[in-house]
Write a structure and sequence with these properties.
about 350 residues; alpha+beta; Ribosomal Protein S5, domain 2; 2 domains; six-stranded mixed beta sheet; five-stranded mixed beta sheet; 8 helices; 19 strands; about 20% helix; about 25% strand; binds adenosine-5'-triphosphate; binds the ligand C[C@@](O)(CCOP(=O)(O)OP(=O)(O)O)CC(=O)O; steroid metabolism; sterol biosynthesis; lipid metabolism
Protein backbone atom coordinates (compact mmCIF):
# COMPACT_ATOMS: atom_id res chain seq x y z
CA UNK A 1 0.00 0.00 0.00
CA UNK A 2 1.95 2.99 -1.22
CA UNK A 3 0.90 6.04 0.72
CA UNK A 4 2.82 8.05 3.30
CA UNK A 5 -0.01 8.56 5.73
CA UNK A 6 -2.56 6.19 7.26
CA UNK A 7 -5.21 8.88 7.31
CA UNK A 8 -6.67 8.70 3.87
CA UNK A 9 -10.22 7.56 3.17
CA UNK A 10 -11.30 6.46 -0.29
CA UNK A 11 -15.06 6.41 -0.94
CA UNK A 12 -17.65 5.51 -3.55
CA UNK A 13 -21.36 6.36 -3.44
CA UNK A 14 -24.01 4.67 -5.57
CA UNK A 15 -27.72 4.54 -5.92
CA UNK A 16 -29.72 1.43 -6.89
CA UNK A 17 -33.36 0.83 -7.71
CA UNK A 18 -35.94 -1.61 -6.35
CA UNK A 19 -37.80 -3.95 -8.63
CA UNK A 20 -41.21 -5.55 -8.69
CA UNK A 21 -41.52 -9.04 -10.08
CA UNK A 22 -44.31 -9.82 -12.51
CA UNK A 23 -43.24 -13.45 -12.63
CA UNK A 24 -42.20 -14.09 -9.07
CA UNK A 25 -39.20 -15.79 -7.61
CA UNK A 26 -40.63 -17.87 -4.81
CA UNK A 27 -38.75 -20.90 -3.50
CA UNK A 28 -35.10 -21.90 -3.43
CA UNK A 29 -33.37 -25.08 -4.52
CA UNK A 30 -30.26 -24.02 -2.58
CA UNK A 31 -30.72 -21.81 0.50
CA UNK A 32 -27.08 -20.88 1.00
CA UNK A 33 -26.20 -19.92 -2.57
CA UNK A 34 -29.74 -18.56 -3.08
CA UNK A 35 -30.63 -20.54 -6.17
CA UNK A 36 -34.28 -20.35 -7.22
CA UNK A 37 -36.69 -23.04 -8.42
CA UNK A 38 -37.84 -20.92 -11.37
CA UNK A 39 -36.86 -18.06 -13.67
CA UNK A 40 -38.41 -14.72 -12.75
CA UNK A 41 -39.07 -11.43 -14.54
CA UNK A 42 -39.32 -7.97 -13.01
CA UNK A 43 -39.70 -4.31 -13.78
CA UNK A 44 -37.10 -2.02 -12.26
CA UNK A 45 -38.83 0.90 -10.56
CA UNK A 46 -37.77 4.48 -11.09
CA UNK A 47 -35.03 5.23 -8.52
CA UNK A 48 -36.20 8.86 -8.42
CA UNK A 49 -39.14 7.48 -6.41
CA UNK A 50 -37.79 4.41 -4.58
CA UNK A 51 -34.09 3.76 -4.12
CA UNK A 52 -31.18 2.82 -1.91
CA UNK A 53 -28.14 5.06 -1.61
CA UNK A 54 -24.96 3.45 -0.32
CA UNK A 55 -21.51 4.87 0.42
CA UNK A 56 -18.60 2.47 0.85
CA UNK A 57 -15.23 3.59 2.15
CA UNK A 58 -11.83 2.05 2.73
CA UNK A 59 -9.03 3.34 4.93
CA UNK A 60 -5.97 1.79 6.60
CA UNK A 61 -7.28 3.38 9.81
CA UNK A 62 -10.42 1.16 9.89
CA UNK A 63 -9.94 -1.80 12.21
CA UNK A 64 -13.04 -3.80 11.20
CA UNK A 65 -15.78 -3.94 8.56
CA UNK A 66 -18.75 -1.88 9.77
CA UNK A 67 -22.16 -1.00 8.37
CA UNK A 68 -24.90 1.52 9.17
CA UNK A 69 -28.37 1.00 7.72
CA UNK A 70 -30.72 3.98 7.85
CA UNK A 71 -28.43 5.60 10.42
CA UNK A 72 -28.20 2.62 12.81
CA UNK A 73 -25.19 0.37 13.05
CA UNK A 74 -25.99 -3.22 12.02
CA UNK A 75 -23.92 -6.38 12.12
CA UNK A 76 -22.16 -7.56 8.99
CA UNK A 77 -21.56 -11.00 10.45
CA UNK A 78 -24.58 -12.58 8.71
CA UNK A 79 -23.84 -15.15 6.01
CA UNK A 80 -25.41 -13.06 3.23
CA UNK A 81 -23.30 -9.96 3.86
CA UNK A 82 -20.23 -12.14 4.29
CA UNK A 83 -20.85 -13.99 1.00
CA UNK A 84 -21.10 -10.72 -0.93
CA UNK A 85 -18.02 -9.24 0.76
CA UNK A 86 -16.00 -12.40 0.13
CA UNK A 87 -17.02 -12.64 -3.53
CA UNK A 88 -16.23 -8.98 -4.19
CA UNK A 89 -12.93 -9.05 -2.29
CA UNK A 90 -11.78 -12.11 -4.19
CA UNK A 91 -12.18 -10.18 -7.46
CA UNK A 92 -10.68 -6.89 -6.26
CA UNK A 93 -8.17 -5.18 -8.53
CA UNK A 94 -5.44 -2.57 -8.19
CA UNK A 95 -6.68 0.92 -7.34
CA UNK A 96 -4.83 4.18 -7.69
CA UNK A 97 -5.93 7.70 -6.81
CA UNK A 98 -3.09 9.92 -8.00
CA UNK A 99 -4.66 13.10 -6.61
CA UNK A 100 -4.78 11.67 -3.10
CA UNK A 101 -1.53 9.75 -3.52
CA UNK A 102 -3.22 6.43 -2.77
CA UNK A 103 -2.17 3.16 -4.31
CA UNK A 104 -3.85 -0.12 -3.30
CA UNK A 105 -2.71 -3.33 -4.93
CA UNK A 106 -5.11 -6.20 -5.24
CA UNK A 107 -3.35 -8.22 -2.55
CA UNK A 108 -3.93 -5.36 -0.06
CA UNK A 109 -7.72 -5.74 -0.12
CA UNK A 110 -7.56 -8.83 2.08
CA UNK A 111 -6.07 -6.72 4.89
CA UNK A 112 -8.15 -3.57 4.46
CA UNK A 113 -11.51 -3.00 6.13
CA UNK A 114 -14.54 -1.17 4.77
CA UNK A 115 -17.20 1.09 6.22
CA UNK A 116 -20.62 1.04 4.58
CA UNK A 117 -23.53 3.42 5.13
CA UNK A 118 -26.82 2.81 3.38
CA UNK A 119 -30.15 4.56 3.31
CA UNK A 120 -33.46 3.40 1.84
CA UNK A 121 -35.80 6.26 0.95
CA UNK A 122 -38.76 3.91 1.54
CA UNK A 123 -39.75 1.47 4.33
CA UNK A 124 -37.22 -1.29 5.05
CA UNK A 125 -38.29 -4.97 5.36
CA UNK A 126 -41.93 -4.06 4.70
CA UNK A 127 -42.43 -5.95 1.45
CA UNK A 128 -41.21 -3.16 -0.84
CA UNK A 129 -38.04 -4.95 -1.95
CA UNK A 130 -35.56 -3.16 0.31
CA UNK A 131 -33.32 -6.21 0.26
CA UNK A 132 -33.28 -6.05 -3.56
CA UNK A 133 -32.20 -2.41 -3.81
CA UNK A 134 -30.03 -2.78 -0.70
CA UNK A 135 -27.89 -5.72 -1.80
CA UNK A 136 -27.71 -4.50 -5.41
CA UNK A 137 -26.31 -1.19 -4.13
CA UNK A 138 -24.00 -2.97 -1.68
CA UNK A 139 -22.39 -5.06 -4.42
CA UNK A 140 -22.40 -2.36 -7.08
CA UNK A 141 -20.67 0.22 -4.87
CA UNK A 142 -18.12 -2.22 -3.41
CA UNK A 143 -17.29 -3.46 -6.91
CA UNK A 144 -16.45 0.08 -7.96
CA UNK A 145 -14.43 0.82 -4.82
CA UNK A 146 -12.40 -2.36 -5.25
CA UNK A 147 -12.10 -2.00 -9.03
CA UNK A 148 -13.76 -5.34 -9.78
CA UNK A 149 -13.59 -6.02 -13.47
CA UNK A 150 -16.80 -8.00 -14.05
CA UNK A 151 -19.84 -7.29 -16.19
CA UNK A 152 -23.21 -6.42 -14.68
CA UNK A 153 -24.60 -9.99 -14.98
CA UNK A 154 -21.58 -11.37 -13.11
CA UNK A 155 -22.15 -8.75 -10.39
CA UNK A 156 -25.82 -9.77 -10.31
CA UNK A 157 -24.77 -13.32 -9.40
CA UNK A 158 -22.94 -11.86 -6.39
CA UNK A 159 -25.88 -9.66 -5.35
CA UNK A 160 -28.08 -12.77 -5.62
CA UNK A 161 -26.16 -14.24 -2.70
CA UNK A 162 -27.29 -11.28 -0.57
CA UNK A 163 -30.94 -11.57 -1.52
CA UNK A 164 -32.31 -13.39 -4.55
CA UNK A 165 -34.38 -10.52 -5.94
CA UNK A 166 -31.34 -8.20 -5.66
CA UNK A 167 -29.78 -9.71 -8.78
CA UNK A 168 -32.53 -8.13 -10.89
CA UNK A 169 -31.84 -4.64 -9.47
CA UNK A 170 -28.46 -4.52 -11.25
CA UNK A 171 -30.31 -3.57 -14.44
CA UNK A 172 -32.89 -0.98 -15.44
CA UNK A 173 -36.05 -1.67 -17.42
CA UNK A 174 -37.31 -5.24 -17.75
CA UNK A 175 -35.10 -7.90 -16.29
CA UNK A 176 -34.98 -11.68 -16.22
CA UNK A 177 -33.29 -13.74 -13.55
CA UNK A 178 -32.24 -16.94 -15.27
CA UNK A 179 -32.43 -19.68 -12.65
CA UNK A 180 -29.45 -21.57 -14.08
CA UNK A 181 -28.58 -25.23 -13.68
CA UNK A 182 -25.09 -25.29 -12.26
CA UNK A 183 -24.71 -26.50 -8.68
CA UNK A 184 -22.30 -23.70 -7.80
CA UNK A 185 -24.73 -21.03 -9.06
CA UNK A 186 -22.42 -19.44 -11.61
CA UNK A 187 -25.16 -19.45 -14.28
CA UNK A 188 -27.94 -18.16 -11.99
CA UNK A 189 -27.86 -14.49 -12.94
CA UNK A 190 -29.85 -11.55 -14.26
CA UNK A 191 -29.98 -10.22 -17.80
CA UNK A 192 -31.72 -7.15 -19.16
CA UNK A 193 -34.61 -8.00 -21.50
CA UNK A 194 -35.17 -4.43 -22.58
CA UNK A 195 -34.41 -1.03 -21.12
CA UNK A 196 -36.78 1.34 -19.32
CA UNK A 197 -37.58 3.32 -22.47
CA UNK A 198 -39.15 0.30 -24.12
CA UNK A 199 -42.48 0.81 -22.34
CA UNK A 200 -42.15 4.21 -20.86
CA UNK A 201 -45.81 5.00 -20.25
CA UNK A 202 -46.29 1.93 -18.10
CA UNK A 203 -47.47 3.08 -14.68
CA UNK A 204 -46.97 1.17 -11.46
CA UNK A 205 -49.17 2.09 -8.52
CA UNK A 206 -48.29 0.73 -5.11
CA UNK A 207 -50.99 0.87 -2.45
CA UNK A 208 -49.04 0.97 0.79
CA UNK A 209 -51.38 -0.49 3.37
CA UNK A 210 -48.69 -1.02 5.92
CA UNK A 211 -45.09 0.11 6.03
CA UNK A 212 -44.47 -1.80 9.26
CA UNK A 213 -41.86 -4.51 9.28
CA UNK A 214 -43.38 -7.77 8.02
CA UNK A 215 -43.91 -10.64 10.45
CA UNK A 216 -42.80 -13.22 7.89
CA UNK A 217 -39.75 -12.49 5.77
CA UNK A 218 -39.70 -13.59 2.14
CA UNK A 219 -36.94 -16.05 3.04
CA UNK A 220 -39.14 -17.79 5.62
CA UNK A 221 -42.31 -17.52 3.54
CA UNK A 222 -40.82 -19.20 0.50
CA UNK A 223 -39.20 -21.89 2.63
CA UNK A 224 -42.64 -22.75 4.04
CA UNK A 225 -44.16 -22.78 0.54
CA UNK A 226 -41.48 -25.18 -0.70
CA UNK A 227 -42.13 -27.47 2.28
CA UNK A 228 -45.93 -27.40 2.21
CA UNK A 229 -47.37 -26.29 -1.14
CA UNK A 230 -48.24 -28.76 -3.87
CA UNK A 231 -49.41 -25.88 -6.04
CA UNK A 232 -46.19 -23.86 -6.01
CA UNK A 233 -45.09 -25.10 -9.41
CA UNK A 234 -48.45 -24.18 -11.01
CA UNK A 235 -48.75 -20.56 -9.88
CA UNK A 236 -49.26 -17.68 -12.41
CA UNK A 237 -49.44 -13.86 -12.04
CA UNK A 238 -51.26 -11.12 -13.96
CA UNK A 239 -51.49 -7.36 -13.98
CA UNK A 240 -51.73 -6.91 -10.26
CA UNK A 241 -49.33 -8.38 -7.83
CA UNK A 242 -48.55 -8.67 -4.15
CA UNK A 243 -45.04 -9.20 -2.93
CA UNK A 244 -44.52 -10.92 0.38
CA UNK A 245 -46.49 -8.32 2.31
CA UNK A 246 -49.89 -6.61 2.35
CA UNK A 247 -49.06 -3.88 -0.17
CA UNK A 248 -50.80 -4.24 -3.54
CA UNK A 249 -49.01 -3.30 -6.74
CA UNK A 250 -51.20 -2.38 -9.70
CA UNK A 251 -49.78 -2.10 -13.18
CA UNK A 252 -51.50 0.10 -15.78
CA UNK A 253 -50.52 -0.25 -19.42
CA UNK A 254 -50.50 3.51 -20.03
CA UNK A 255 -51.08 6.85 -18.31
CA UNK A 256 -54.72 7.08 -19.44
CA UNK A 257 -55.55 3.76 -17.81
CA UNK A 258 -53.52 4.80 -14.76
CA UNK A 259 -55.49 8.02 -14.29
CA UNK A 260 -58.82 6.14 -14.55
CA UNK A 261 -57.47 3.61 -12.06
CA UNK A 262 -56.35 6.34 -9.68
CA UNK A 263 -59.80 7.98 -9.79
CA UNK A 264 -61.35 4.66 -8.76
CA UNK A 265 -58.75 3.93 -6.11
CA UNK A 266 -59.19 7.35 -4.55
CA UNK A 267 -62.98 7.00 -4.70
CA UNK A 268 -62.83 3.79 -2.66
CA UNK A 269 -59.74 4.58 -0.57
CA UNK A 270 -59.85 8.32 0.13
CA UNK A 271 -57.30 9.70 2.57
CA UNK A 272 -58.28 10.68 6.09
CA UNK A 273 -59.81 14.15 6.10
CA UNK A 274 -56.76 15.67 7.83
CA UNK A 275 -54.34 14.36 5.17
CA UNK A 276 -53.31 16.35 2.14
CA UNK A 277 -53.32 14.87 -1.32
CA UNK A 278 -49.68 15.69 -1.91
CA UNK A 279 -48.52 13.44 0.91
CA UNK A 280 -51.08 10.75 0.02
CA UNK A 281 -49.58 10.23 -3.45
CA UNK A 282 -45.80 9.72 -3.50
CA UNK A 283 -43.59 9.53 -6.58
CA UNK A 284 -44.95 10.74 -9.90
CA UNK A 285 -47.70 13.17 -8.91
CA UNK A 286 -48.39 14.26 -12.48
CA UNK A 287 -50.96 11.43 -12.81
CA UNK A 288 -53.09 13.36 -10.32
CA UNK A 289 -53.36 16.20 -12.81
CA UNK A 290 -54.22 13.76 -15.61
CA UNK A 291 -56.99 12.43 -13.37
CA UNK A 292 -58.28 15.98 -12.76
CA UNK A 293 -57.44 15.81 -9.05
CA UNK A 294 -55.83 18.95 -7.70
CA UNK A 295 -56.86 18.73 -4.07
CA UNK A 296 -58.94 16.82 -1.53
CA UNK A 297 -62.06 18.62 -2.73
CA UNK A 298 -61.72 16.91 -6.10
CA UNK A 299 -61.30 13.53 -4.42
CA UNK A 300 -64.44 14.04 -2.34
CA UNK A 301 -66.33 15.06 -5.49
CA UNK A 302 -65.35 11.92 -7.44
CA UNK A 303 -68.48 10.19 -8.73
CA UNK A 304 -68.89 6.43 -8.18
CA UNK A 305 -67.17 4.50 -10.98
CA UNK A 306 -69.63 4.22 -13.89
CA UNK A 307 -69.33 0.45 -13.98
CA UNK A 308 -71.02 0.28 -10.55
CA UNK A 309 -74.77 -0.10 -11.00
CA UNK A 310 -76.86 2.70 -9.38
CA UNK A 311 -78.49 0.39 -6.89
CA UNK A 312 -75.26 -1.05 -5.51
CA UNK A 313 -74.14 0.95 -2.45
CA UNK A 314 -70.52 1.84 -2.82
CA UNK A 315 -68.75 1.42 0.49
CA UNK A 316 -65.65 3.55 1.04
CA UNK A 317 -62.54 2.51 2.94
CA UNK A 318 -61.29 5.84 4.19
CA UNK A 319 -57.81 5.69 5.70
CA UNK A 320 -57.27 1.96 4.95
CA UNK A 321 -54.40 2.77 2.58
CA UNK A 322 -51.56 4.72 4.23
CA UNK A 323 -50.41 6.18 0.91
CA UNK A 324 -49.95 5.35 -2.75
CA UNK A 325 -46.68 5.33 -4.67
CA UNK A 326 -47.04 6.15 -8.34
CA UNK A 327 -43.98 5.14 -10.33
CA UNK A 328 -42.73 3.80 -13.66
CA UNK A 329 -39.95 1.67 -15.14
CA UNK A 330 -36.57 3.11 -14.24
CA UNK A 331 -32.86 2.82 -14.83
CA UNK A 332 -30.32 0.58 -13.16
CA UNK A 333 -27.69 1.49 -10.54
CA UNK A 334 -25.53 4.58 -10.99
CA UNK A 335 -22.49 6.05 -9.24
CA UNK A 336 -22.92 9.45 -7.63
CA UNK A 337 -19.81 11.52 -8.11
CA UNK A 338 -21.07 14.49 -6.08
CA UNK A 339 -19.39 14.09 -2.68
CA UNK A 340 -22.19 15.98 -0.95
CA UNK A 341 -24.40 12.91 -1.56
CA UNK A 342 -22.02 10.60 0.32
CA UNK A 343 -23.35 9.15 3.57
CA UNK A 344 -19.90 8.87 5.15
CA UNK A 345 -17.64 11.70 6.21
CA UNK A 346 -14.68 11.87 3.77
CA UNK A 347 -12.25 12.65 6.61
CA UNK A 348 -13.30 10.10 9.22
CA UNK A 349 -15.18 7.46 7.19
CA UNK A 350 -17.93 7.56 9.84
CA UNK A 351 -21.61 8.40 9.15
CA UNK A 352 -22.17 12.11 8.54
N1 LIG B 1 -29.95 -0.63 2.11
C1 LIG B 1 -29.67 -1.87 2.47
N2 LIG B 1 -28.41 -2.34 2.39
C2 LIG B 1 -28.13 -3.61 2.71
N3 LIG B 1 -29.05 -4.50 3.14
C3 LIG B 1 -30.32 -4.08 3.24
C4 LIG B 1 -30.70 -2.76 2.91
N4 LIG B 1 -32.04 -2.64 3.10
C5 LIG B 1 -32.47 -3.82 3.54
N5 LIG B 1 -31.45 -4.71 3.62
C6 LIG B 1 -31.50 -6.10 4.09
O1 LIG B 1 -32.73 -6.67 3.66
C7 LIG B 1 -33.48 -7.13 4.79
C8 LIG B 1 -34.97 -6.99 4.52
O2 LIG B 1 -35.34 -7.94 3.56
P1 LIG B 1 -36.80 -8.58 3.48
O3 LIG B 1 -36.81 -9.52 2.33
O4 LIG B 1 -37.22 -9.04 4.83
O5 LIG B 1 -37.74 -7.31 3.18
P2 LIG B 1 -37.98 -6.51 1.84
O6 LIG B 1 -36.87 -6.80 0.89
O7 LIG B 1 -38.18 -5.08 2.17
O8 LIG B 1 -39.33 -7.13 1.31
P3 LIG B 1 -39.64 -8.12 0.04
O9 LIG B 1 -38.42 -8.91 -0.24
O10 LIG B 1 -40.78 -8.96 0.49
O11 LIG B 1 -40.05 -7.22 -1.07
C9 LIG B 1 -32.97 -6.25 5.93
O12 LIG B 1 -33.16 -6.88 7.16
C10 LIG B 1 -31.47 -6.11 5.60
O13 LIG B 1 -30.75 -7.26 5.96
C1 LIG C 1 -42.12 -11.90 -3.30
C2 LIG C 1 -40.74 -11.64 -3.89
O1 LIG C 1 -40.45 -10.27 -3.81
C3 LIG C 1 -39.74 -12.45 -3.12
C4 LIG C 1 -38.43 -11.82 -2.97
O2 LIG C 1 -37.71 -12.51 -2.02
P1 LIG C 1 -36.28 -12.04 -1.51
O3 LIG C 1 -35.38 -11.80 -2.66
O4 LIG C 1 -36.44 -10.91 -0.53
O5 LIG C 1 -35.86 -13.35 -0.74
P2 LIG C 1 -34.42 -13.87 -0.32
O6 LIG C 1 -33.74 -14.38 -1.54
O7 LIG C 1 -34.68 -14.97 0.68
O8 LIG C 1 -33.71 -12.69 0.29
C5 LIG C 1 -40.80 -12.10 -5.34
C6 LIG C 1 -39.72 -11.57 -6.29
O9 LIG C 1 -39.14 -10.50 -6.06
O10 LIG C 1 -39.51 -12.24 -7.33
Amino acid sequence: MASESQNWVLMVTARAPTNIAVIKYWGKRDEKLILPVNDSISVTLDPDHLCTTTTVAVSPSFDQDRMWLNGKEISLSGGRFQSCLREIRSRAGDVEDKEKGIKISKEDWGKLHVHIASYNNFPTAAGLASSAAGFACFVFSLAKLMNVNENQSKLSAIARQGSGSACRSLFGGFVKWIMGKDENGCDSLAVQLTDEKHWDDLVILVAVVSSRQKETSSTTGMRESIETSLLLQHRAKVAYTFDAGPNAVLIARNRKVASLLLQRLLFYFPPNSDADLNSYIHGDKSILRDAGLEGLKDVEALPPPPEIKDNVPSQKYRGDVSYFICTRPGRGPVYLSDESQALLNPETGLPK
